[in-house]
Structure formats: structure tokens, C-alpha cells
Amino acid sequence: MHFPVKKFGRKEEYVHAMDDISFSLYQGEILAIVGESGSGKTTTANVVAKLHRPTSGEIYFNGQEIYGQEVRKNNLEYRKNVQMIFQDPFGALNPTHTIRGILERPFVIHGLAERSELEAKIKEVLVQVGLEPPEQFIDKFPHELSGGQLQRINIARAISVEPVLLLADEPTSMLDVSIRIIIMNMIKKFRDRDNISYLYITHNLAGARYIADRIGVMYAGMLMELGPADEIIQNAYHPYTQLLRSAAPQPEKDFKENKLTTQGEIPSLVNPPSGCRFHPRCPKAMPECSKKLPEMYQINEKHRVRCLLYRQ
Amino acid sequence: MSDKLLEVQNLIAGYQTKMGRVLAVNDVSFELKKGELIGIAGESGCGKSTLAYSIMNLLEDNGAIFSGEINFSGDNLVDFSAKEIKQFRWQKMSMVFQSAMNALNPVMKISEQLIDALKAHQKGISEKEARKRAEEMLELVDIQKDRLDAYPHQLSGGMKQRVMIAMAMILNPDLVIMDEPTTALDVVVQRNIIEKIEDLRSEFNFSIIFITHDLSLLVEISDKLAIMYAGKILEIGPAAKIYSNPLHPYTKGLMNSFPPLTGEIEEMSGIEGKPPDLLNPPAGCPFYPRCEKRMEICKTEMPEFKELENEHQVKCYLYQGSDNLE
């Protein structure tokens, strides 16, 4: 097995699949990508952030291919427009810099503020993420703040350059439960105020439903279902989405009521199953599922499913 | 009562640090019946793991039980000598640790690790018997017995966690403490493990202390639920009651932190602020600084438990005065 080469090959294929289904994100929209670990959610964000270059397939941002000439000439502007919020708030901030040092960098790099305005700008953005009074935080080091406060700094750093698209990679999964909703509400607030679009990556179905307009479900590197958030949860078509749905805790039900119908684990991506990648675990698998890779079939105007059951 | 297995009374435990004593478990009392599952919910740093380690007598060197009793079917574990507790631990109570990835020895086959536990407690058991028992345990947790000689890195995360459960149950204990056993796992794998635990519990009738921050999961599986904050249990009672009628403002806040999967999507609020520094705990109720319904008295005084309904108890001045129920 040519392991690393194969692995990169996988990524190409995956990005191509995204292109196939014309995964699009609208202005001011929150699109949640859910899936288990290893399903390719983070890779999706990284490719959009130009951290990995897809070997085939195209990504258009405001109508321009992100590896095309226009964007390449203005790469810094693309970086300004597309910002990231990382999963681990402790690891995402340089521990040897103060909050001031961390937050002045984006202003300086993108030339958005004069030296003399920096302090005022930093304070303003600190207030926006609820760290008040800002004087109390500006000269602190990351280790002096809690996880929730650090994640606010991360958000502050991302929104300070007035981005168009924010890639949020599990921004709440490492935070205490009582803080998660607060961070999610903050993300929504900036969407409503500045019309920022979000690619919101999470493994938490209930959280995705709470925050997102649309949800895309990924499995083993492929997008299995894409549609309006509530429809995906209440009326899932793909057997994998149904599995995820039944695995999520539901306090309103008694435990014994919902039993899992599927066994097994996510397949190895070095040698993925032929045909539909979910067929080895699928309770509704048909003989042809192992041979034919399903396309994204249209359920209605906004809802698509990659499953042969819904072939027209 | 004969079906009472564990009774923790006024337990105070914590750590001695250079900056002073940290009481991570501060005056905790609860009871556990045979075959019952108690869920302990709380955020990081609230003392739930310290509570587990205190009961197991596995606190680190700088940790100690300062006062209180842990009665386990008639014996007070706090009084046990190191030798006695060594005998007792794993035989009568065992533990499933949070990170199965690190809890298994990476250079030993899982067969050796399972058999090790057997041999340490059952003197004179033959290699063959021990191996047979290890095989049975693996099958019990749905791992084929030909994986017995695998090394931990050859197993997936979910399988490792199931090996941990097999190891915890190999001596047929009365109590298994599970400290965030599914936190590092994916939802589907998590569900598999939980279903397995429930099957085993109904088959062997052992008791479980299940510790996690995931309240929605806990409500679903627990018989009894305890909400911990800053080393104290603030509310305890039947899980269904706490879910349908949370009383303490902290419990309400926690409940308001988990978006539902069904029904209307409402604006949720979470809880502003952060837990207190346990080096300098507040004088009164530890939740006072974050509480929306705080009163003057909460600043300096901490109320006792008040039983409002059958076994549903809460420590909060909102419910001290009369027998009013919302």
C-alpha cells in the first residue's frame, strides 16, 4: 500500500465530491457540517482556508476560483476575508504573547489600523466579544484566562478584520457545557450583525440544529445528505443520518426506547468500501449498494441525499 | 436497609498545594442501592473525578480524604489500611477510566492485562482458567476472542474502551465507577458502549456511578442524578424528576445549555461567568456569583438539603422557607 500517496488521493476525491454536488454557502448563512471523527469535516474547512490544496476540483469564493489568478494576486485579501476559529482555544493562541500582542497582529498585517489607533481598536473588539472591561484583559497572557475567555479572544481575532466567511472548527467542543451556548449565541450575533457566513464544523447534532440554517452530513470523506437544518434532524433520509440521529442522547425519551440499528465503525479511508461508503454498516443496504456509488439525489429544492433508495 | 450498597457521608477530600488546601469534594453525601445507576453531572473542575478517586482510594500523593465516611456494605473504606484497600479494590469495586487510550499499557497484550487483574486477586487461579475467563469477558463486551492477544494500538478507540469495561468487570464487582467513559468517543460508538453497559447491568445487577458533563446523556440513563458544582452536590434526586422539574438555578442553567433535538428551537442562554477558584471558595453558596436569583443571605450562608418531593433534594435558599413547589 502506498499509504501517504493514497491518503492524498483520498483528499482529492473528497474535494471533487464536494464540487460534484455544488456545495455552496450563501452570504450570512450558517452551514453546519456534522459527522464522526475521520469523516473529513476538518479537511473541508482546511481546504477552503487554503491550508491544503485540492488536486482536483474547484472552489469559488465570491465568484472567483481560490487558486485562480485574481485571488492569487490578492492572496492577503482572501486571507482577510476567510478567517478561522480553531477547536482548541488553548493551543490556538501563542502563550508567550499578551492578548494585546495577539490582537494587534491582524490589524497590522492587513493594514487596518494606524499604530495610534491600535489600542482603541483592540479594546473595541474585546468589548464586542463580551470581555469587559477590556483594560482587565488586554495585558494578560493566555494562561491567565479560562477556556471560554480564550475562545472569545479567538473569535475577537477572527472578526477584527471584518471577514466575509468564518470557518469554525468545533469551536465549543473543548469548552465547559455552560459556556458552549454562550459562544454559539455570539457566533449567531455576528452573523446577524455583520452578515458573516459560517462553515460550522461539529459532531454535535443538537448543537448543529440550534445554530445552523443548513446541515451537511459527512461520512468517510463524502457528503451524504445536505438540507435545511430542521429537515435533516426531523426528517432524515439517509440511513447514516438516521443512525446519527438515533445515537444522539435524548433526555426526553426513556433509554430503552431507541436502540441502535447499526454496528461497526467508520471504514478505513486508505481502502474505502466500494460503492456507497456506508453500505457495510447500512441496515437498508441492497446488493447494488456495494457496486454503484450513488449520486446526490434531489429530494426537494433544498434537500439532497446520496443514497440509492431515493433514486428517481 | 439491606439493599443499600454504598453510603457516602459528609465526605471532604481534596489536595494540598503550595498555595493552600483545595477542597475539591466539600461535604458530599449520597446513597446508592444495589443495581442502581447514579449519574454525577458537573463541569470540569467541579470535583466529580476527585469524588470518584476518593471512593476508589486512588487519590494522588498530594490528595487526601480529610473527613467523612464511605460506607460500602457495612465497612467504612476511609478506615481501611493500605493493604486492606488493595484487597478490596477491583474485587468489590472497580473503575473505568476516562481515557482508555492511556489507561491500557501499550506494550502489553490485552490478554496479559486482563489476566494480571485476575491473578492479583484470585491466588491460585491457573493460567488456563484465567485465560478462559478473559475470553468470556471479551465476548461479553462483543469483542471476538481471537483479539485477546492484540496490543492496544491494534484496537479502535471504542474497542479499547470495551476492553476497559471487561477489565473492570472481570472480578464481578458490586460497584463500577465510570469516569467519563465515553467522552473521547464518537456519538455512534458512545451509544454502542452505553447500550452494552446497560445490558451488562441488567444481567449482573451491579451498581454504577456514572460521571460525565453530558447532562442529556445522563438524564437518559440514570436512575438517580446528582448535580455537582464547586465540590458540592447542589441537587440530587430521581433523574426523571430533575429533568422535568429542575429546582436549583444552576441545574436550570445546565438544562438550558443543551439544545434539544426535537421541538421548537428556543433561544438558550447558558450560564455566564465561570466556576469559583477552589483555593478561595466563596463563603456562602458557591454558585452565588453566577446566580440570577441570588439573595443577600446566599453570599454568606449555605443552606442544608431540603427535601421537596420524594427524594428530590436541593440546597438553595429559594426553597428553604416554605413547602412551596413551583
Task: Describe what is shown at a glance.
Chain A is an alpha/beta fold and 312 residues long. Chain A has 12 helices and 10 strands. Chain A has a single domain (2-96, 141-310), classed as P-loop containing nucleotide triphosphate hydrolases (Rossmann fold), CATH 3.40.50.
Describe the protein's architecture and organization.
The complex is a heterodimer of chains A (312) and B (326). Helices cover 38% and strands 14% of the residues of chain A. Chain A has helices spanning 3-20, 41-48, 69-73, 75-81, 99-109, 118-128, 135-138, 147-159, 177-194, 205-211, 229-234, 239-247; strands at residues 30-34, 60-61, 64-65, 82-85, 165-169, 197-202, 214-219, 222-228, 297-300, 303-305. Chain A has one domain: P-loop containing nucleotide triphosphate hydrolases (Rossmann fold). Chain A contains 12 helices and 10 strands. Chain A is globular. Chain A is an alpha/beta fold and 312 residues long. In chain A, the strands form 2 sheets. Chain A has an 8-stranded mixed β-sheet, sandwiched between helices. In chain A, strands 2-3 form a two-stranded antiparallel sheet. Chain B is an alpha/beta fold and 326 residues long. Chain B has a domain at 4-92 and 212-319: 3-Layer(aba) Sandwich (Rossmann fold), CATH 3.40.50. Chain B has helices at residues 48-56, 82-88, 100-103, 110-121, 127-140, 157-169, 187-204, 215-221, 239-244, 249-255; strands spanning 4-17, 20-33, 37-41, 63-72, 75-76, 93-96, 175-179, 207-212, 224-229, 232-238, 306-309, 312-314. In chain B, β7, α7 (187-204) and β8 (207-212) form a beta-alpha-beta unit. Chain B is globular and about 65 Å long. Residues 322-326 of chain B have low confidence and may be disordered. The interface between A and B is large, with 42 and 41 residues.
